[in-house]
C-alpha cells in the first residue's frame, strides 16, 4: 500500500501533528519516517529512505531509541509502568522489530550518531542486555560526546526512570571498556543524582570515579549543603546519609555562595536535632560570640525562640547538645 501511494506522488517528507509516545504525551510534529522508526518497522524504514525520506538528526534516531526504551520498560513490568505518570500502554511496534536493523539503516543513510543518541540510549535502556549501547558504539557513537548541558553519556546512567545500582554499574563499564573520561561536571551531576535517589552504593560508585564531595555546585554549595536541603524519605535515612558523607571526608566548614555553612542550613531548614548534633560532633563551629554565632541565633530568633539564648553565653551550644527538643523547649503546661 505504501509503495503504491509513493508511486502516485505521496510526499514522503510530509509533516503531521500528533501525540508523542513518551510518558507526557507531548504534541509533536512527525514525518512518516519518524513513525516507521518509532515502531521499529525496518522494512518500512528502508522503503522510505530509498524514496528520499529525510533524516532529522536530532529527532529521527532519538525517537527510535526513546520509543524502544519505553517499550522495553513497559514490557519488563517496571513498577508504575502503567501509572498516571506514564503511557497507559507500550508504543505500537512491529511484531518482529529489530533495533539494530533500524539504526543501521539510519546510519547507512547519514544519521549522525553523536546527536545525543548515545545519551538517550543510556538513559532509556536498563542494561547492556538490550545490545543497544554496544551497537551504537560499534557504529561509531562517541562516548565523549556532550549534550546541551555539557554532560557526557555516562552521567545519564545516574538519572532517568530505570535508576538502580545494577544499571549504574553496568553503564559505568563504559568508562573501562571505552576509556571514557568523566569530567568534573559529569561527576557532580552524577553525585547529586545519586544523593537524590538515597542509594549508598551509587554514591560510593561515583566517589570511586573521583567525584569531589567538597566541590561547590552552582547554587547549592557542597554536597552537605545540598543534602541538608534535599527532601529525604525519612529523617533516619537522612541522618544515615549525613554520617556516610562525614565519614568519607565531607567538610563541615565550607561555605556556599551566600557564605553559609552546612550548620547554617541545618538550623534554617531542618529543625532536626540529630542533623545539627552530627554536624557539631564533626567539628562545625557554633561560637555564641561575634558574627557567626549571631547569625545562627538570628535564624532561631526568627522562628520564635527570642527569649531562650544570651549571645554572650554558651546557651546555644547547650541547647543544641540536649538529648531531645522537649528538654530544651518544654511544652507549655
From TrEMBL:
GO CC annotations on file: cytoplasm; nucleus
Lineage: Eukaryota, Fungi, Dikarya, Ascomycota, Pezizomycotina
UniProtKB keywords: ANK repeat, Repeat
Record bears the keyword Repeat: yes
InterPro entries the UniProt entry points to: Ankyrin_rpt (IPR002110), Ankyrin_rpt-contain_sf (IPR036770), Multifunctional_regulatory (IPR050745)
Gene3D superfamilies reported in the protein's UniProt record: Ankyrin repeat-containing domain
Organism of provenance: Penicillium fimorum
Identification of the protein by name: Ankyrin repeat protein
Amino acid at each position: 500500500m505504501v509503495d503504491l501511494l509513493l508511486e502516485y506522488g505521496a510526499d514522503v517528507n510530509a509533516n503531521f501533528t500528533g501525540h508523542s509516545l513518551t510518558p507526557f504525551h507531548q504534541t509533536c510534529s512527525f514525518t512518516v519516517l519518524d513513525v516507521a522508526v518509532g515502531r521499529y518497522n525496518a522494512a518500512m524504514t528502508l522503503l522510505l529512505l530509498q524514496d528520499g525520506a529525510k533524516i532529522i538528526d536530532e529527532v529521527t534516531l532519538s525517537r527510535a531509541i526513546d520509543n524502544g526504551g519505553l517499550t522495553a520498560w513497559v514490557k519488563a513490568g517496571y513498577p508504575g509502568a502503567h501509572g498516571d505518570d506514564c503511557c497507559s500502554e507500550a508504543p505500537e511496534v512491529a511484531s518482529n522489530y529489530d533495533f539494530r536493523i533500524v539504526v543501521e539503516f539510519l546510519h547507512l543513510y547519514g544519521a549522525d550518531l553523536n546527536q545525543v543518541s548515545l545519551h538517550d540510549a543510556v538513559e532509556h535502556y536498563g542494561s547492556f542486555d538490550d545490545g543497544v549501547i554496544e551497537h551504537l558504539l560499534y557504529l561509531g557513537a562517541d562516548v565523549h560526546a556532550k549534550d546541551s548541558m555539557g554532560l557526557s553519556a555516562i552521567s545519564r546512567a545516574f538519572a532517568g526512570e530505570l535508576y538502580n545500582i545494577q544499571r549504574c554499574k553496568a553503564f559505568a563499564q563504559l568508562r573501562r571498556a571505552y576509556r571514557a573520561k568523566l569530567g568534573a561536571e559529569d561527576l557532580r551531576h552524577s553525585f547529586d543524582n545519586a544523593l537524590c535517589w538515597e542509594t549508598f552504593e551509587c554514591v560510593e560508585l561515583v566517589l570511586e570515579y573521583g567525584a569531589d564531595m567538597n566541590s561547590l555546585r552552582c547554587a547549592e554549595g557542597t554536597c552537605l549543603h545540598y543534602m541538608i536541603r534535599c527532601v529525604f524519605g525519612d529523617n533516619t535515612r537522612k541522618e544515615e546519609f549525613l554520617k556516610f558523607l562525614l565519614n568519607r571526608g565531607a567538610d563541615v566548614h565550607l561555605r556556599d555562595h551566600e557564605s553559609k555553612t552546612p550548620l547554617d542550613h541545618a538550623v534554617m531548614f531542618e529543625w532536626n536535632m540529630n542533623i545539627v548534633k552530627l554536624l557539631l560532633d564533626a567539628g562545625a563551629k557554633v561560637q555564641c560570640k561575634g558574627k557567626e554565632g549571631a547569625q545562627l541565633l538570628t535564624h532561631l530568633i526568627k522562628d520564635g525562640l527570642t527569649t531562650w539564648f544570651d549571645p554572650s553565653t554558651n546557651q546555644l551550644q547547650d541547647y543544641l547538645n540536649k538529648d531531645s527538643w522537649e528538654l530544651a523547649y518544654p511544652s507549655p503546661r
